Amino acid sequence: MALTAMDIYKNLPKTNCGDCGVPTCLAFAMKLAQKQASLDECPHITEEAKEALSGSSAPPMKIITIGTGEKALKIGGETVLFRHEETFHHPCGIAIQVNSNLPEDELRQQISTICETEFDRVGMTFRLDLVALVDNDGNLPAAAAVAQQVSSLPLILVSDDPQAVRAALEVCAEDRPLICAADADNFAEMTGLAQEFSCPLAIRGETLEQLYELSEKALEAGVADLILDSSACDSSSVLQDQTTIRRAAIKEKVKPLGFPTIGIAIGDDEIDKVTSGCELIAKYAGIVVTDLLTRDTLLPLITARLNIYTDPQKPIQVESGVYEVGEPDAKSPVLITTNFSLTYYTVEADVSAGHLDAWIVVVDTEGTSVLTAWAAEDFTPEIIAKTIKECGIEDKVDHRIGVLPGGVAVLSGDLEEASGWQIVVGPRESSGIPAFFKPEYTQRIG
């Protein structure tokens, strides 16, 4: 029988120290009861409490941490099979593969590029998560030394050679890299390294049955931080194995399979690799490894991950207020829209594409689009007028003309009365902004 939050709370230290990442022990107990946290996140938990609570409070898929400090990557901790049942809490990591036998200057440059690569998407900044050093001709230790100097991201040490991995760990073990991977041939040596250096370990099985057996043996040996690799090498097998592992972990509570997975984006060309990477992100990899490094091939993976791991109950929002596009002045047009990120950035992009200088007044609608906010009565004449008065736009322009989205033209009359502004009904779609504003707006304001 599952323990309630109060049952769990009775076994916690009740210090309300916040060291677990939530403000109170009761809040932490509620997360444990919902399988959204691990007992390991409480640094003050007693051994007796661990023994009493470990089985009932742990999520069916263990949370695994790779790396240390602010750049550490946490994966796993999943409690549901499908996103619509709740939400996915720990976005999968994207790892870029680097060959260890590159010349040192080239190796430094490639790792630096990976660490510095970032994407600005709907007002949010996204970065890559891991550097996967692939052993070539025994060069892994030297590459690990270079990476430790250059990389700000956690490492994956990819090698079947325990001696090469040991030499690399002697250089970078304090940064807690992922050892990848233990298989049937090197199992004893690799699990020994994982224990000795306290690093997470990837387990690779040629079949799911072998993967289960190796994971079970690793747990018996005391290696608890595991990541699973099914060795699938075609799209159909990848999908089947990933789904089987996740169902076994989430639905059947099969402990040896209750860990995140790792997969390689495979394919003969960039399009195939992007497709494979997106498949792994959707179903259900904890880490996706790829050798893609151009922005146009990585952006689809970043976007796919954003789409999967965005909580649908918490839409991505921008702050309410007034924004500049281009170099607007006192006579520039004023557009009115909502704070749903996709809506705002679509309007901003279309204004920029038309080479217009404009002000955008963003109304707080709790992250919903124009028509949705209007239907929910979050985009009313009174709310819009209040935003206009409080955002400071009246100090920036010497006119009082605002442009309302055409889809809510019905609000224009009441908005004029509530705000004291003249309201112009704009196009229904923001793509019509460039054609609409230049003749219409300048005529009205002139």
Q: Could you name the ranges where pLDDT drops below 50 across 5 or more consecutive residues?
A: none
Give the second-level CATH assignment, the architecture of the largest domain.
Alpha-Beta Barrel
Say how many strands there are: 17
Can you list the strand order of the major beta sheet?
Answer: 10-9-8-7-6-3-12-11
Question: In one word, what is the shape?
Answer: globular
- Largest beta-sheet details: 8 strands, parallel
Which percent band covers the strand fraction? Answer: 15-25%
Radius of gyration: 26 Å
CATH class category name of the largest domain = Alpha Beta
CATH topology of the largest domain: TIM Barrel
Could you tell me how far the N terminus lies from the C terminus, measured between alpha carbons in angstroms?
74 Å
How much helix is in the residues? 25-40%
pLDDT averaged residue by residue: 92
- Find the structural class using helix and strand composition: alpha/beta
What's the domain count? 3
Counting H and I runs of at least 4 residues, what is the number of helices?
A: 16
Protein traits:
16 helices, 3-methyladenine DNA Glycosylase II, Chain A, domain 3, eight-stranded parallel β-sheet, 446 residues, TIM Barrel, single chain, Rossmann fold, globular, 3 domains
Briefly summarize what is shown:
The chain is an alpha/beta fold.
Question: Topology, please?
Answer:
Blueprint: H1 5-9, H2 25-33, H3 47-57, E1 64-66, E2 73-75, E3 93-99, H4 104-116, E4 118-121, E5 124-127, E6 130-134, H5 140-150, E7 155-158, H6 162-172, E8 178-182, H7 187-197, E9 201-204, H8 208-220, E10 226-229, H9 235-250, E11 262-264, H10 270-282, E12 287-290, H11 295-309, E13 321-325, E14 334-338, H12 341-353, E15 358-363, H13 370-375, H14 381-390, E16 401-404, H15 412-419, E17 422-425, H16 433-445
Parallel strand pairs: 3-6, 3-12, 6-7, 7-8, 8-9, 9-10, 11-12, 14-15, 14-16, 16-17
Antiparallel strand pairs: 1-2, 4-5, 13-15
Helix pairs in contact: 4-5, 5-6, 6-7, 10-11, 14-15
